[in-house]
Design a protein that fits this description.
- The structure holds two protein chains of two kinds.
- Chain A is an all-alpha fold.
- Chain A has helices at residues 6-23, 27-52, 61-77, 82-104, 109-129, 131-134, 156-178, 181-191, 193-198, 203-229, 239-252, 257-273, 277-295, 300-317, and strands at 147-148, 151-152.
- In chain A, strands 1-2 form a two-stranded antiparallel sheet.
- In chain A, a hairpin with a 2-residue loop joins strand 1 and strand 2 (151-152).
- Chain A is globular.
- Chain B has helices spanning 2-32, 39-56, 61-84, 92-114, 139-161, 163-173, 175-180, 185-207, 218-232, 237-257, 263-277; strands spanning 130-132, 135-137.
- Chain B has eleven helices and two strands.
- Chain B has one domain (2-277): ABC transporter involved in vitamin B12 uptake, BtuC (Orthogonal Bundle).
- By secondary structure, chain B is mostly helical.
- Classes of the chains: A mainly alpha, B mainly alpha.
- Chains A and B meet through helix 5, helix 11 and helix 13 of A and helix 4, helix 9 and helix 11 of B.
């Protein structure tokens, strides 16, 4: 997409959100849209890492969980106002990402996959077993609704606007990063780490930075999730949750911001449309991942675009 | 002392199972440079098939065991043919997502076939536990140890003495070179998948009597097997066995002396440590490009 249209696209996007928020009063639809927003944040965060920098993470739900649990513990157990808990939640995830990232991001390929998977499992086990702090396997109850100063976000509609404002802000942030020098350096790492290093990209530092950023966005989504549902349990942040995020990115297309929105929407709506879906959830996700990756390794939306391009070219030639 | 011995026994039993799973990872990696993230699900398939064939269909032990292994190996070869070979650009990130997808798919299929309940079956032979210095050693544990020893010896002979085994070693050393001297590389990959998933099935079938088998047991077992393989040195036959046993024993000691809730964390902590400190593992010698 051309850069000069971006402000128009953002404005259109914001107007679209405002219109939806103005028209929709049904609590169920608002809830659904809020979840699409949260999943979009998660997909965007993993997309920065996987789509642009080419570094896989199979434990991304860990950061989502850290964000949710830090704010839950601070605002419930210690009565900290949510506005102060937010930087703590995001900061904790970023610090952990930094500490874990230093050794992990030296790995590549399969080892990075296994390393992040192991990290995700450890976080999940800690959330489940550290009962005195996290509430253990039965979960953490009684998280207060979000209040920032005099503004309360207890109603679905206000929460809808909050979440989507955050989504828009994160989209703009990601887009700005990608269009910058840093973004080009990330793409260079994706295409060839040694080549990127040879032309002067500090690959190790850059990978760490994007990992930390990505963890921060995921923790932000976790923060919003905790104050939305008031009850969190380790089950929402396990291996399957990480796989869902990967599936969203794969469907939406690696290295595509609007694709993240599409992938998140599809995977949030699919279970709602198909009532028998929960039985087949894993089979469907597995098939999607395999089929898309075999035939369109750049993701579903990109793959379909490529096929269309190819079709048009052969058509034009005739 | 008695306690220590008891932990050692239970660690050795689990360790033997991890060793077989690690062998599957290791031999697939050495001949195809690929880590199969769905390997654990083939262990699950092995365990549940075994339960269904013996307790469900009433088949005798030995035929049930071989039918299970053959069926799972066939499933593994089918997986290679349908999902791995068609990949045009086999970069790690693509293969990781495909095998993770396969793992989720197999898990979902397992849930649809066997339901969410855990299943159990009687031990191979109904013998009372053996008493050694006050610690109990289950008869099934002895069986598992016998199976591991037989497998290790068999694989060793296969690689060193048979033409097919030597051809596979050649593929592991240099794919193009192997292809030039006329080794059918594609068949070797298919065979490696069959052997690797077959090993997974052996692991699954042998633990079915001592554990509750359910559709979601595979992921953790697979990860532990991978951890064992990394610990001993990925690609090394004896390394996989050493790593598996070491992991099992360390885990049992952790459960005994620290906490049982964090049992599964032991393996992942070890895995992360190995990845960071000595990615070539204990017995791995060859230069490995892990960085």
């Amino acid at each position: 997409m051309d850069d000069k249209y971006l402000p128009a696209i953002y404005t259109g996007f914001a107007l679209g959100i405002a219109f939806l928020g103005w028209r929709i009063d049904n609590a169920y639809y608002l809830q659904l849209l809020i979840f699409i927003g949260l999943n979009t944040l998660l997909a965007l965060s993993l997309n920065m890492l996987m789509g642009y920098a080419g570094q896989i993470s199979l434990g991304h739900a860990a950061f989502y969980g850290i964000g949710a649990y830090v704010t839950a513990i601070l605002s419930t157990t210690y009565q900290v106002p949510p506005l102060l808990a937010l930087p703590a939640a995001v900061g904790a995830a970023m610090v952990i990402a930094w500490i874990v990232g230093i050794p992990t991001l030296r790995l590549s390929g399969y080892y990075l996959g296994m390393g992040t998977l192991g990290f995700g499992m450890i976080v999940h086990i800690v959330l489940r077993e550290w009962g005195s702090v996290t509430g253990g396997a039965s979960g953490f109850v009684g998280i207060p609704p979000l209040e920032i100063g005099p503004v309360s976000f207890a109603s679905s509609k206000s929460y809808f606007f909050l979440v989507w404002a955050v989504v828009l802000a994160v989209i703009i942030l990601c887009r700005r990063i990608i269009d910058s020098r840093v973004g080009r350096a990330l793409c260079a790492i994706h295409d060839g780490e040694k080549a990127a290093a040879a032309v002067g990209v500090n690959t190790r530092r850059l990978k760490l930075q994007v990992f930390v950023l990505s963890a921060g966005i995921a923790a932000l989504a976790g923060f919003l999730y905790a104050h939305l549902v008031f009850f969190i349990s380790p089950g929402s942040f396990g291996f399957m949750a990480s796989i869902k995020i990967v599936t969203m990115v794969v469907i939406g297309g690696m290295a595509s911001i609007w694709g993240a929105l599409f992938g998140a929407s599809l995977l949030t709506l699919l279970p709602e449309w198909l009532h028998a879906f929960s039985e087949f959830e894993m089979v469907v996700y597995g098939l999607i991942l395999m089929v898309v990756m075999i035939f369109m390794p750049r993701g579903l939306t990109r793959g379909l675009m490529d096929i269309y391009e190819r079709y048009r070219k052969t058509h034009d030639r005739q | 002392m008695q306690e220590l011995l008891q932990y050692l026994f239970s660690g050795m039993t689990n360790g033997a199972v991890y060793a077989v799973i690690a062998l599957g990872f290791s031999m697939l990696y050495s001949s195809t440079d690929l880590i199969n993230f769905a390997h654990g699900e083939f262990v699950m398939l092995g365990a549940l098939c075994m339960v269904s064939l013996t307790a469900g269909a009433g088949l005798a032990l030995v035929p049930a065991f071989f039918v299970t292994v053959a069926a799972v190996a066939a499933a593994g070869m089918l997986f290679e043919r349908l999902a791995i070979r068609p990949v045009r650009h086999p970069q790690p990130i693509v293969l990781i997502i495909i095998t993770v997808g396969a793992s989720i798919f197999l898990r979902g299929t397992g849930m649809l076939i066997w339901g969410k309940d855990a299943h159990s079956m009687p031990p191979f032979l109904d013998i009372a536990p053996i008493d050694i210095a006050g610690a109990r050693l289950l008869a099934q544990s002895v069986w598992i140890l016998v199976i591991v020893t037989a497998l290790a010896a068999g694989l060793h002979l296969f690689y060193k003495k048979t033409l097919t085994g030597k051809a596979m070693t050649a593929c592991a050393v240099n794919k193009k070179g192997a292809w030039i001297v006329g080794i059918p590389f594609k068949w070797m990959v298919l065979l490696a998948f069959g052997l690797s998933t077959g090993l997974g099935a052996v692991a699954g079938a042998s633990i079915a009597p001592i554990t509750m088998s359910s559709y979601d047991m595979g992921t953790i077992l697979g990860l532990k097997g991978f951890c064992g393989a990394m610990l001993g040195g990925l690609g090394s036959l004896w390394g996989a066995i050493l790593g598996g046993f070491l992991l099992g024993i360390l885990e049992a000691m952790g459960v005994g002396f620290v906490s049982s809730g964090f049992k599964d964390a032991t393996a992942f902590l070890l895995l992360l440590l190995v990845l960071y400190i000595r990615p070539q593992g204990i017995l791995g010698t060859a230069e490995v490009k892990r960085f």
